[in-house]
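Tutorial, part two.
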Amino acid sequence: MLDEIGFFDERFYMYCEDVDLSFRAQRAGYRCVYAPRAVVRHRLSATGGGVLASYQCGRNFIWLLALDVPGMAWRRYGARFVRMQARLAIDALCHFRESSARARLRGQIGGLLTAPRLLAERRRSVANQRVSDAYVLGLLT
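Running the prediction step on this input gives:
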């Protein structure tokens, strides 16, 4: 699978790169399994929290929406996606004195500014998609 679809998208750097990989795998026809009782132990925690995490999450959630969410899901849930991002931005604005809140906003702005390029990239990658948008939408519901 990794030979075919590639590894983690390094642009994500951290946070959501695993979700992007699973979306790409599913769209290529591979199955991912949800194992709620699985336990992963990190030997070290090199990332985590604060300004960096807030920025990365703000940007990468928007990147996921642009790169991986099919058009059918946008048509059905697009208003919800936009409302959720707006709520996160409003919450960050309410806490603007905090550096993490400002980082979240910078991340969201960065994600929005780069989303058009990612949408164009996604349109090219859809040509290689082996499953229907309805199948991918089913994963989200």
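The two ends are 25 Å apart (CA to CA). In part three we will examine how such features are distributed along the chain.
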